[in-house]
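[stage:ingest] chain + small molecule (flavin-adenine dinucleotide)
[stage:ingest] validated
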Amino acid sequence: PPTALIIGAGIAGIATSLRLTKLGYQVQVFESNPHTGGKLHAIKQDGYRFDLGPSLFTMPHLVDELFQLFDEEPSAYFNYIKKENLCNYFWEDGTKFQVKESLPSFINDASLVFDEPKSNIKAYLDRNKLKYDLTQELFLKKSLHKTKTYLSANTLKAIAQVNKLHLYESLDQTNQRYFTNPKLIQLFNRYATYNGSSPFQTPGIMSMISHLEMYFGTFYPVGGMHEISQSLTRFAENQGVVFHLNAKVDEIVTDTKKVNGLKVNNQFYEGDIVVSNMDIFSSYSSLLKTAIQPKKTLNQERSSSALIFYWGIKKEFPELDLHNILFSEDYQAEFEAIFNEKEIYEDPTIYINITSKEDKSDAPSDAENWFVMINVPANYGQDWMQIRKKLRKQVIAKINRILNTDLAPLIESEYVWDPVEIEKSTSSHRGSLYGASSNDQMAAFLRHPNFSKQYNNLFFCGGSVHPGGGIPLCLLSSKIVSDCVSDLKLTYA
Ligand code: FAD
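[stage:predict] done
[stage:export] tokens:
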């Protein structure tokens, strides 16, 4: 059988390994870490378990599909539960709001708490659905870089209704069209952070991100987020995929128009096709040094990064759930600091994720495992040690104010990740979480295609290429790669 070599065992690399196996390739994956999963990794410390990277799981059917490709029942390998409470929101003035999974409950509750007409809330949610329905085929499921994508009926339908997509204004401006209450606007502005962008710059079409969460729901994987990457790794191994761990790829070996294989620890591996799941910037700068560099794409603004405190807290907080947000008082200033000044705003929004709310075994009894994340700029050489110290104090003070507690003495275990650590452990350029930001209308078109224009048997998957970052989009990138590889096989035939 033909061989496929994959660089990186992030979620997209693992998913691609399964899809290419299904296409009949013998697949080998080379991963520089001693483990698979990339950003989907976890640690155990002092009796606590922490997922290191992603904490929010949406569109689980995209994971299920990978088991179903092989006619297997997903639940034999991987299980998840639907959350009834999506997120708890807190503001400094004492306002609290819980977003329920049921849309009618959300409309009722939001109308009461934020004093907005139910009809406006419903109109907003309906428009988000329309945006998603019109554009998902074009932006998420197909290559944006193939002519046939633009000739499909779905694309023509989307183009005919382009005025409904809010492409030429910011997400904040779109949200202001529907709402007057600044807190509800802030709640919906937050969805820009799901792809590491600013609500004051990313286009209004991004309101459809909230649709993914509010319409399709949010889920918790049994065993934690880490189980997404680990169950798929085990399954891929069962299907014959070979994972080489501690195997850093040093070079993609190229001919004039095709690639021949990989150089790994001074050894050459020959392959019929190569797929890079490494960040696109790093793929070009370290593995494809002699290739034509797509400068505009590589110079795209990077998405935000994160500073995360993983805290073992020796107390239980009944007012918190799996997902919790403590909002900043000035959201615009917060994003200006992140994207314009490359600094951290003094009163940052805090996200607290607590998986021991779902699975008690993630923390000792009467304790909780807190994942406390702050959105920060990508790494431009800031003094992260200094920032960690300052932020730690600011974050604890804000939590104390809003939850009326004294947190510092309750922290009995601590681990920290910052943009430098994220880059070191996953090769994400500047430690950004989602590749390029979506801070302008053209971002989607500038993002690197899932194939190389120079080498016909080289492909790219993962959060830094089309269609973008986050687990669902990474999984979709694998699907597009597999479609491109099928086309290539047809050409060979
Ligand atoms: P990565 O996870 O980036 O993995 C790439 C892999 O390639 C790594 O394992 C790396 O070691 C390997 N590699 C790189 N170079 C080489 C080389 N030369 N040789 C061999 N191997 C190499 N997404 C969500 O959906 N929900 C969330 O809640 C969410 N929150 C996040 C929070 C944090 C703190 C972070 C960091 C990310 C978050 N994301 C979230 C984003 C999500 O984690 C990523 O979009 C996704 O996991 C990226 O997967 P990937 O396939 O692109 O590869």
